[in-house]
Amino acid sequence: MKRNSGPEAGPEAELEEGEPEVKKRRLLCVEFASVASCDAAVAQCYLAENDWEMERALNSYFEPNVEESASESRPESPSEPESCVDLTKEETNDSVSSKTSTSEDKSVQQEDGSVFSFITWNIDGLDMNNLLERARGVCSYLALYSPDVIFLQEVIPPYYAYLKKKASNYEIITGREEGYFTAIMLKKSRVKFKSQEIIPFPNTQMMRNLLCVHVSVSGNELCLMTSHLESTRGHAKERMNQLKMVLEKMQEAPESATVIFAGDTNLRDQEVTKCGGLPNNILDVWEFLGKPKHCQYTWDTQMNSNLGIAATCKLRFDRIFFRASAEGGHIIPQSLDLLGLEKLDCGRFPSDHWGLLCNLDVIL
Is the pLDDT of residue 89 over 60? Predict the structure, then answer.
């Protein structure tokens, strides 16, 4: 197979046998466990025995007319499987939790009607290692910045339950209820929910979809979207098809609405080019702000050691697309910064992705 000789080809080629395969298998385990209502250990066993082919593994698990023999041959579930971790248990007092509660108390006082802010972050809920401490770390950032909207990817049910408990001042809308999914969190004191819509990606192999939420903020109509586009280089064609669906949906939104898409796109720059680039009325916020170097790479294996990968790979997987309302000028992107750059006490970062904090001016 002929390899791309572009600037991204080198590190990505080195990484091909590393993170993408690990990530893909994690996703397959979660999807299998969701469909089969089993734990991650059982899912991994059946997938491994069937060369990580989902359909074969599921057929093996649900073999008709031999339920008894199948149940006898299935491995016993661990007494405390990692996939059943309960993030809602009371945690011990520490600097992160105290920081969170203090920031939550002040969040109402910090609201400014002329500024609209949001965070987008792939929180890597599929990584069960140090999950509770990493969830606390994410929540500490959410409480510290108290954004009006939060876009999350790779949320799992225990993480969702934790967020509902720790962020009760937000309304949470999810793209699914099982496996892993996206979510959009709306600050109740600032953002008025109107409606939601889930657009399926018909050819996804990774349970992906597009979550759309219609809201109003300070009299402005907004259409908020998030997604986690198909992962790994081998699924570039499907990922590009999903991007086209996202852009079409942004174009279809009412002209009176400002449209914001924020999520983990897994996109490489050449894939956007192959799709014909962005439509004239849709901005890539990072490019609009002058391509600031400090927040260019949201997935950086040199700086972020969570995956333990030796190869260096820097990519702008997490992106924000913006379409102004027809009247224009009411909401304008102003700044972009990375989040999650500090290691937690466990020695790991909150996620293998950096989060993005975006501030926009609201013309009242």
Answer: no
Q: What are the residues facing 362 on neighbouring strands?
A: 331
If phi > 0 it is left, if psi is from -120 to 50 it is alpha, else beta; for residue 235 that is alpha
Residue at 177: amino acid letter: E
Query: Is the CB of residue 167 less than 8 Å from the CB of residue 101?
Result: no
Question: Which residues are designated catalytic?
Answer: 264
The one-letter amino acid at 90: E
The pTM of this model reads: 0.76
Residue 104's pLDDT band (cuts 50, 70, 90): very low
| CB distance 285 to 358 below 8 Å | yes
CA distance 82 to 213: 32
As a whole number, mean pLDDT of residues 164-187 equals 96
Site of tokens 């014909």: 276
Q: Is the pLDDT of residue 304 over 70?
A: yes
Q: What is the CA radius of gyration of the chain?
A: 21
Whether the Cβ atoms of residue 188 and residue 170 lie closer than 8 Å to each other: yes
Residues 107, 144: Cα–Cα separation, whole Å: 8
